[in-house]
Amino acid sequence: GRWNTLLTALQQFKDDYDKNAPLWRSMPEFCQKHPNYEKMGLYDLCQHVHSLYAKYDVAKLSTEMYLSDLTPAMKPSDAYAHIARRTTERVPIDQLEGRITTALITPYPPGIPLLIPGEVFNAKIVEYLKFNREFEKECPGFETDIHGLVQETGPDGVTRYFADCVA
Question: Which of 50, 51, 59, 76 is nearest to 128 (CA)?
Fold first, then answer.
């Protein structure tokens, strides 16, 4: 049944990993969408992803960002009123610490809000957003969707990340 199908797929993945099978063979549909991975091996990809996770200590960071002290600066309805009055500012993620968000900030996965409107960005949340920026640049196709984070691609082709904050 389904367990056999799952176990077979997992064993095939493990075999491909051990052999460093080319991604065009082990993940053909993914490589069609992201041809820059065609010449990479599965083991090499996993090591690259792991090195980025280790660099930012993502296991610790993702725990700390949810356990960090969150500071409400205003009621969510007051933060929303800034949107209605057009008194918001689009702030680059490198400058977010200490700023008040006007949007719900929720990474998927896990789908648990980090901030609600009216709360203040802290250092741990900004560090997590910086990790995601680097990860999306280094590993396109494996992005985390972060609701409330705005992506804008400039005329130079570089994608920049912002959050809307109280001006």
Answer: 59
